[in-house]
Amino acid sequence: MTELAWRLTRLGGRGAVLSTGLTALAVAVATLLLQFAVAGNFAFAERAERTEWRAPVAAEDGSAMIATAVDYLGGDAIARVDLAKLDESAPAPPGLESFPAPGEVWVSPALAELLEGVPDEDFLDRYEGTIAGTVGDEALAHGGELLAVVGREADDAAMTTERSDGDMVSPTAIDGFDEGAPGFVYAFYQVLMVLATILMAVPVAVFGAAAARLTVARRDERLAALRLMGATPGQVVRLTLIETVLAAVAGSVAGTLLWTASTPLVALIPIDGGSWYVADLWAGAPWMAAVALTVPLLVAVSAVVGLRSVVISPLGVARRVRPKGLRSIRLVVFALCAVAFMVGTQVVSGSDMIVVAVLLGLLAATVAAVNLVGPWIVQKMGRTLARTARGPARMLAARRLSEDPKAAWRAVAGVAIAGFIAGSVALFPLVQSDTEPEATETVTATVAAEDADELTARAEAALAGLAEVELVERADPLDESETIAEVRATTSGDEVERVRSVLTATLAGDPPQREVDETILSNRLVGSIRVGVTVVLAVVFATAAVSAGISAIGSVLDRRKTYRLLHLSGTPQRVLDAARRQETVLPLALIGGSSVLAGMLITSPLIGAMGLDVSGVLILAVTLAVGAAAVIGAGAASRPLLRSVMADVSPRPD
Amino acid sequence: MSAPMLTAHGLRKRYGTAVALGGVDFAVAGGESVAVTGPSGSGKSTLLHCLAGVIRPDEGEVRLFGERVDTLSERERSHLRRTRFAFLFQFGQLLPELPAEENVALPLMLGGTPRRKALGPARDRLAQLGLAGKEDRRPGELSGGEAQRVALARALVVNPAVVFADEPTGALDRATGDQVMGVLLDTVSQLGAALVVVTHDPLIAARCTRTIVIHDGLLHGGDLAEARR
Q: How far is C-alpha A328 from the geometric centre of its chain's CA atoms?
């Protein structure tokens, strides 16, 4: 059976080879993108895991003390881990050869590079130590991470002063570094990555399933011939299935290999201020194999469903009848999902994993339901346009849309999803503020209110002649009975790092900050989200363009006889080109527009009325322009094929 | 008999080394119907395509009302095929997603007539061919004979000078084929148009006013009896 299927493909002529090849190509692209989406989650998990040692579980009779802080230098934020040995059994932290002795500073390679040429009084003096070594990769989120591990005495103020920043670890006794909590940013990034996976995987899966129909559709006539020869329906289905699955397996293997080969390039995508270790993108053999197997399986299921809808009688092929109207239940399902998600974001609160998982599930359902409502809208639009069309191109396009709305939808589904994403993020303010030092700078350190006077006096003494020091006390906005004491030092922009170093060494606890420093980390986050959105949009567009191109080629092949006969009767190619272009552009305009609006609508309660900002509008505009161009361009790529099909005047080209 | 509408002289066409037409002369007048018969691969379809301006002959000329056809550009020949010629094929020429009336109106719309105006003559033609009440059906909802009559209505809606038919009844049973052929011959002669039919079927050839036999790219007289032998 397999051999027969193979021979049928090989001897089936240009059309069979082309459509089987297209199926394989489509599956390869789908597999590549799915491997990427899956590996992304593992990559973030890997990074998160490597940061866990910095927040280990507390131990009652610990052998060491740990505390963390964020230091700033210019426009950079540097993660700091303070360590002090309590007894000799203190284990060496990951990435370090030994437990850092007091006065030893271990730096990450990126920090070592950053500190080249920076005078000690501008940075290193903060730790009152010298650089003892380099932190190894296994302790770093990524190669570009700025990290300093500082060895201290157990009674050093840095090891005894509470951190008021909730994201930092206050001095804690520990026994080891094996178990801990991942860095807070990475918990957040991991949720975003799941979100990105949903948004990428849905169109990719739709597209992969559509690829199967390519081979099936092209088989109609030959299947009828096989039935005439006496093949049973079961045999015919099996033959087609074998053919399709062979193509899908080849595509899936190619896609997986392609993914493996492209990991060094993907590793360059900067997230959280650094590119990736290539090994992080290795999801592991079981997962990669699972993806590589799932895709052909999906294709096979889709092929069986597609075959069932083709009535293969021995005499003649599937007969076309009036297209069935798609039922409006599709709209209802979509509306229910969307409303559930919007209500869900309003009603449930908190950041429990369960809550996040439920919300993500609802979002996935909504995105998947877009695939239900899309064809319905396309068909409604086609019917309306068919009634009002004046010219031949519009009429042909409109009838095609109402005849096969799912095919038209597949071509624009990617852009719809992209529009939805761009619409959602258009409302996020993604502005990055400038963090360069100005002429006059003030750094502020929060100190314990009861020691405020003494600490201020100490800071004044240390900074005499270097900066103006003042103590500001104000009520805690969260708890009016508490007082927040801040020591502020004002100096020139040139001296700010020196002042900061002195102040850091003098006042333990939260390192002094310029007001703008707080935005360094959020800038980094915003930058990462922007990169992430761009990557997701790129993936979705690649899907949209390839799927539009393949469905255009598929529709030309499907209708090659009719096109040829239309050409014989003098139909100009430009009318057919215009009709084919409108088949894409009309739903693109309507669905692209409404998906942007839907995206805005669905995230607006989540974000509140922050208003549009320039970068969001820019992303939106670029998305729509690139998306439309990609889809239209991919459709136009089948023009030479149409020309050759139309010009084929050999007496019986099939 | 009136003067010839469509004439061809010394047509030669080769595909690679294979000779499809080896020097053919041809003429057909208005109201006349010519059957082109011959074995498979004899050059029947090539002759039809040359006459209709689908392909250009390597040598020789084709004239419609005395004007050269074969020297026109592809665009001009397309226009000619759309406005002065009409085609009827075995099957597959109707667009499956268009209702019958829109399939028939399509050639008029391609010529620039707005749809509303094009639908009138299209419905008239359909009614004339006994398809009143079925204007809204899609090709898949029609019987083979009905679909072929829709195709005929589409061919005739532009009031062509010459109708080219390539095995027009090949996909139909004998009775239906006879009926469609009868309608074809009747309506073409009513229009005063010329009809060129490529066919294998001697019974269809017998209903035409004249038969030519083509063999290895060469014409063999006009005698049906000779063709049968």
A: 32
Q: Give pLDDT, residue B224.
A: 42
Are B97 and A575 within 8 A, CB to CB?
no
Domain extent at residue B164: 1-84+160-171+192-229
**Structural class in CATH, domain A440-513:** alpha beta
Whether B154 is in a domain gets the answer no
* Three-class DSSP category at B36: strand
Output the pTM of the full model: 0.76
Give the gap in angstroms from C-alpha B229 to the nearest C-alpha of chain A. 25
The per-residue pLDDT for range B194-207, each reduced to its tens digit, is 999 998 888 888 89
- What's the ipTM? 0.80
Q: Quick check: A569 and B86 CB within 8 A?
A: yes
The single residue listed with the structure tokens 């430009």 is A574
- Bridge partner residues of A79 (DSSP): A70, A147
* φ, ψ at B6 (rounded to 5°): -120, 125
**How many structural domains compose chain B?**
1
Q: Which two tokens stand for residue A407?
A: 């095919």
Residue B18 contacts A where some CB pair is shorter than 8 Å: no
Q: Is residue B107 part of a domain?
A: no
Q: What is the Cα–Cα distance from A163 to A165, expressed in whole angstroms?
A: 5
- CATH number, residue B208: 3.40.50.300
Average pLDDT over residues A181-206: 82
In A, which residues are within 8 Å of B103 by CB distance?
Answer: none
Q: Name which of B91, B95, B102, B158 to mutate to probe chain A: the one with the most chain A Cβ atoms within 10 A of its Cβ.
A: B95
Which among A404, A565, A571 has the least Cβ separation from residue B92? Answer: A565
Structural domain contains residue B144: no
Asked if A477 contacts A486 with a C-beta cutoff of 8 angstroms, the reply is no
Q: How high is the pLDDT of residue A605?
A: 63
User: Measured between beta carbons, which residues in chain B are less than 8 angstroms from residue A322?
Assistant: 138, 140-141
Report d(CA A140, CA A123) in Å as an integer. 21
- Specify the pLDDT at position B120: 93
Stated length of chain B:
229
Out of B97, B106, B115, name the one closest to residue A403 (CB): B97
Q: How far is CA B192 from CA B1, B25, B142, in A?
A: 12, 22, 29
Give the mutation candidate from B13, B56, B109 for the A interface (greatest A CB count, under 10 A).
Answer: B109
| Domain limits, chain A | 2-47+186-430+521-647, 55-180, 440-513
Q: Is residue B11 part of a domain?
A: yes
Smallest Cα distance from A354 to chain B, Å: 49
Measure the N-to-C terminal CA separation of chain B; round to a whole number of Å: 28
Collapsing DSSP to helix, strand or coil, B177 comes out as helix
Q: What is the pLDDT of residue A349?
A: 63
Q: For testing the chain B interface, which of A390, A560, A568 should be mutated: the one with the most B CBs within 10 Å?
A: A568
Residue B139 to residue A651, Cβ atoms within 8 A:
no
pLDDT confidence bin for A316, thresholds 50/70/90: very low
Question: CB–CB of B115 and A395 under 8 A?
Answer: yes
Whether residue A651 is predicted with pLDDT greater than 60 in this model: the reply is no
